[in-house]
Amino acid sequence: MLLDPLANALSKIENYERARKREATVSPASKLISKVLRIMQEEEFIGEFEFIDNGRGGKFRVALKGKINGCGVIKPRYAVKRDGYEQWEKRYLPAAGFGLIIVSTQRGIMSHQRAMEQGLGGRLIAYIY
Fold first, then answer.
1. How many whole angstroms separate alpha carbon 64 and alpha carbon 61?
2. Residue 21 half-sphere exposure, CB side, CA atoms within 13 Å?
3. Would you place residue 2 in the very low, low, confident or very high pLDDT band (cuts 50, 70, 90)?
4. Is residue 69 situated within a structural domain?
5. Is the dihedral of CA 114, 115, 116, 119 positive or negative?
6. Which residues contact 100 (CB under 8 A, 6 or more apart)?
7. Total structural domains in the chain?
């Protein structure tokens, strides 16, 4: 029984990166995982990814670039005010300006830098560096 598909997907991607693989397969697929992968792609942590319908929830094939040193979900999903991201950067990222935190805001899922630019708070979902 799979309790947290996002945590499973991120740990699978991190393990494949450490094994120096060029491609990872993440299943089951979901909209949340798709949005997180899109942000990782925009920030150039991963290459292209595609959805594959296998009749059992689908899966994603992700092209890896070897740029991920660590990633994971943030549990519990802490609420953050628009000026409170610095505290969480210090806690989850190795250095200021290195890596990103993925946040769920009222305007959708985005990186913490984009949320700070737009002056939005939200809930912390994951970190990548």
1. 10
2. 14
3. confident
4. no
5. positive
6. 39, 43, 93, 111, 112, 113, 127, 128, 129
7. 2
pLDDT digits (tens, 9 = 90+) for 51-71: 999 999 999 999 999 999 999
Tokens of 17: 């990166």
* Same structural domain, 53 and 81: no
Locus of tokens 């409170």: 84
Closest listed residue to residue 39, CA positions, set 102, 124, 98, 126 = 102
Strand partners, 80: 122
What are the tokens at 53? 């319908």
Residue 49 lies in a domain: yes
Tokens standing for 108?
A: 């959708």
Asked whether residue 25 is assigned to any structural domain, the reply reads yes
Residue in 87, 86, 128 with CA at minimum distance from that of residue 111:
128
> For residue 54, what are the domain limits?
5-64
3-state secondary structure of 58: coil
Mean pLDDT of 107-121: 97
